[in-house]
Amino acid sequence: MASRLNTKHKAPFSYLVILAFFLGYMLLPILATYLFSVATRWDRTILPEGYTLEWYQTAFASSYFTITLRNSLIVSMASVLVSLLIVVPTVYWVRTRLPEAKPLLELLMILPFGIPSVVLALALVQIYNMPPIARSPYLLVSATVIFSMPFMYRAVSNAIEAIDANTLTEAAQSLGAGLGPILTRVIIPNIFPGILSGSLLVFATVFAEFTLAKLITGAGFKTFPLLLVEYTRKNGSVAAALSVISFTIAWVASMLILLVGRSGKSGRQEHAPTH
Amino acid sequence: MAYLELTDVSKSFANVAAVKNFSLAIEKGKLVSFLGPSGCGKTTTLRMIAGFEQPDSGTITLGGQDITVVPPNQRGIGMVFQAYALFPNMSVAENIAFGLKMKHTPKPEIEKQVDSVLELIRLSDTAKRFPHQLSGGQQQRIALARALAVQPQVLLLDEPLSALDAEVRLALRGEIRRIQSDLGITTIYVTHDQEEALSISDLVVVMNKGDIEQVGSPIDIYRKPQTRFVATFIGTANQFTGEMSGEHTVLCGQYQLNTRPPADRIASGSAVLVLVRPEAIQVEMEADPRPSVNAIPGMVETVTFHGAVTRLGVNVYGQRVVADVTETNTGVINLNQKVWLTFPPEVCQVMVQNE
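Structure tokens for the assembled complex are given below, as produced in the milestone run.
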């Protein structure tokens, strides 16, 4: 009992220090960016000299703003879609019919982390050097799908491991269901939280992706991070404003996905025990 | 005429034979148990009937039609799993309706059918609940209802009670038998629990290492085991080794046993095994005067109280023999007491020792 009390007294302080350090490390750059995006000038004083929305006006007025934003959304959503279409059936198939392929799949899903995106981009550009694929948005989406696939794979794979996919499949089969209804009515609804978080991770990763977009499509199909980097050279304050917009979009997208996930769940699992 | 028939069905996994030349004919409306230790091939056989595994050789026919290669979703065979396998995203009613929806049954009929099977399993009030809100026993009853809702030609139960605790297991066992008899549905019940198999079945198939050891009524399986495996796997049996000394007498060293006449004549001098159930042995203080009754002397070494019976461990010429006695017919028995184990020839089953 005494030792428990002891830890109770000591722990919060050391934990708080660690927590504060962590939060500061993570949040300070973001807060600074927010502040910088509304500062008139902030290089001679501790706090900004004044506040303005001018940089946002400049950002919104840029002819490339809507185009790059649209392009980024297209690439991100297409990546999510393609990733889902590839990963969900594959993971299901490997889980239920081909468990011996799982180690290979796990290995493949680590590769994107090991291969720098510069290498991936240059290799793809060289190999797929024929129209209409060469330097096209299609090639960009292919690259971002590879690049972000581990996030989707991990989320979906964990979700499918958590349900007894084999027995659920067999139960559905014995009730007369073919592959289509098994996937759409039984498997997907039960791994939906995994699908959602995978989609969210892929969306966020691809939305902020710079290297692949720069090297594969470049000026031909400019994405939002490209515009942002351009502005860091021209005007840091506008770049900060664009960063804030980018953050906001990522957050709104996350919230929307979480909300959709929760509303899908709440109807049927409001009494769900926490486990 | 057999309704479900398996002929020479074999299956191996990675060159290890799981089921060897399994042949069995099951009549319509019967409840048949596959009983055996884990790894005996009972579940593999069941899964081949369901269509989840393909036999390496042999055929399976249902109602005269060869279903060996028919996909599981077109066999019309219902299945209940050990782990319930209810769809977590669906309510109880939706779970039960699933199979009917797959058959494109009209909605009003689905509702009627869902209500009727829920009534059958006496869980009408759970229709709107979700699987995680139900107890294990309730979930398994829903799984049973779900399998029955589509009116399958055959119902398969794969160790349906193994995950439940003893009390629920007992209640649900009776429930399964009641529903099965009411509906007259041909059912195969896989279990490793001998008591379950004996109490519930019309026919028991005892399996070991991929082979059928014996097929028979529960009473025959218990009273007339045909192999040593069946005798020892089902209940407890004392084994006396000896050699045939007459048509139905066996010489076991210092004493001779009168046995039930063996089904097939066993040549004199053959090494045999005599099996006697503990509850068939009477423990007396004096030798039985009738020469036809077996009476062998021994010394009580252990006395274990089991409630309804007391199990005695008796040393008979160096061999431990167990006998179950009720307190009323023996009085008080003490350790190291000399007793006579008495049992009639009818309870002695002889089999040739082939190991």
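The interface with chain B takes residues 163-164, 167-168, 170-178, 181, 185-186, 189-190, 268-269, 271-273 of chain A (CB under 8 Å). The two ends of chain A are 28 Å apart (CA to CA). Further analysis is deferred to the final report.
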